[in-house]
Predict the 3D structure of the following.
Amino acid sequence: MTFSVSILGCGAAIPLTHRNPSAQVVNVKEQLYLFDCAEGTQVQLRKNHFRLQKIENIFISHLHGDHYFGLMGLITSLHLLGRESALHIYAYHQLEQIIQMHLHASKTVLRYPLHFHAIDPDRNEVIMENKTVSVSSIPMKHNFPTCGFLIREHQGKPNIRKDFLEGKSLDVSDYGRIKRGEDYIDSAGKVYPNADITLPPAPPRSYAYCTDTAYDEGIIPIIENIDLLYHEATFMEDRKADAEAKFHSTAMQAASIARKAHAGQLIIGHFSARYKEMDKMLDEAREIFANTVLAEDGLSIDIHN
Amino acid sequence: MTFSVSILGCGAAIPLTHRNPSAQVVNVKEQLYLFDCAEGTQVQLRKNHFRLQKIENIFISHLHGDHYFGLMGLITSLHLLGRESALHIYAYHQLEQIIQMHLHASKTVLRYPLHFHAIDPDRNEVIMENKTVSVSSIPMKHNFPTCGFLIREHQGKPNIRKDFLEGKSLDVSDYGRIKRGEDYIDSAGKVYPNADITLPPAPPRSYAYCTDTAYDEGIIPIIENIDLLYHEATFMEDRKADAEAKFHSTAMQAASIARKAHAGQLIIGHFSARYKEMDKMLDEAREIFANTVLAEDGLSIDIHN
C-alpha cells in the first residue's frame, strides 16, 4: 500500500524557473495530504499527475509567502472545477481571515465546505486523525510562528498466516475476529490460538516535514525513528552564521538531526537560491548522515513496509 | 524606440500546464508596465527574460483570482531581492486591504515604498501619467467591478530634417528650440522657418487591454483607432449564450469590436480551458477582422512607428 512523498517545490523565498517554493504531497493509500502550498502549487500538482480534487487536507507550516501563496489559487480552482466534498486546512489562525478576505473580494461563495483548523505552532499535538493516519504538529524554531508536521500510519491489524488459511474456508466475520485478536474455533471445535495463526502487522510508516527551522534538538524526541525526514537546509556550512541569524539550518545541521533521531532516510530541501551546485551541499550532509538525498521538484520517494 | 506587448498568461479561470492565467508586460521605451498579475506571473517574467525590478507600475483589471493571485508573490520577491524604488499599484480599492493583511500576517515591512492607487472601474479617466505614456481606465461590462486599460505614448516632438543638418554644427540648445517649434537663425542672420526644417513626429502608439467583458460597443469611442487591441475571447460562437450569461465575449464579438474601433491589430485571449484547437477560434475572429492573432504565453508583439 502506497506511502510516498512527492516534492512539488523545494526552494526558499523566491520562485525560480527550475525550482518552486515549498509544497509537497504525501500519498498514503491513495489519500493525498498537501504540506505547504506555495505559488505555483496547483500547476505543479498537474505536472506531477495528481488529481487536484483528491486532496482533502492541507497543512500550512507558517505564513511566509513561500509556503502559502498558492493556496487561494488552489481553493478557487477546486471551486471552479466543481468540487463538492469538504476541504480541511490546518494553519496558523490568521490565514482564515486572509482566505475569507479574498473570497469576499471576489464575491465567491464556495460550492464545497471549507473547514479551517487553527493550529498552535508551539505545541506538539495531534491535529488531524482519520482511519489511516494521524498528523501531529512539531514546533519549529523560526523567527515566526511555525510548525512542522509528522504523519504516521495507524498500527495495522495482524496478518493471518497463509499456511493456516490453506484448505479452510473462513467467512468475513472469521477474518474480522482473528484480526481483532481472537482465537479461531473450527466446526469440529478445534481451537487455533491467535498467536499461532497470525503474523504481526507491518510497522506503521512515518514521515516528518520540518521547515522552516534553526537547528533544534528539541524536535528529536518527536521524530525519533522516523522512516523519512524532510529537514530544511537553506544554507551550506559557509553560511552557518546566516543560518543562525535567520533561524534556518545548514545541510550538516539537518543531517545531525537525522542522525540523532535515527531517521531511516533524510531529504534536504528549502535551498537558498544562491546555491547552484547542489552536489556539494549533498556531500556536506552525507558526511554526517549517509542516507541523505537532495530534494528536487518532481522527486518522489516511497516508504516501503 | 520599443513599444511591445508580451503575453505572460492568457487563460481564463484556472492555471494549466501550458497556459497561465492573465498577465502581460507592456514595454514602452524600456519601461515595463504590468497588466494583471495572475499566479505564476513572476516565474513567467523570469522565463521571458524580464527584469522584475524594472516594473514600476502594475495595473489590476479586477479582483478575480485569475487576474491577481500572483501579486503578493511578486510584491514579496521584489522586497526580498532588495528593491528600494517605489512600486505603484492601480486597482480596485479592496486590493489594498488584502495586500496589507498579507504583509501584516508575515510581519513584512517592505524595503520600498508601495503606493496603492484606487481606481474607479466605472470611469474612463487617466489613472497614471509620466513623461512617456498615459494610462487610462476603460469600464468593462462584467459581473464584477472591472476595467480595462489604455496605454498611449505622448505626442513626440518634431524631428529635425537631416538634409538641413548637413554641414551645420548646432548645439544642444539649438536642437531644443527647433524641436519646440522655433525657427533657426544662423550666425549670418539667415532665418530657416521651422516648418521647412522639421518633419512631423511619429504618431503616438497605443495599446488597449480589454478583459473581462461582455460585448460592449460602449468602449469603441475610447479605443478608436488603437494600434493594438487585446480583447478577451473566452468562448467561441458555440457558447455565445454562455458568454452573455457570464459577461464574457466570443472571438467574433472581440473581432467586431476591433473592426468597429478601426484597430490596427487584434490579439484575442482569456481562453476558456475547454478549447484545445485554437485555430478554429482564430478562424472565427478572422471572418470579422482579418488582422487577428491568438494570444499564447510567450507571444510578443511590437508596435512600430
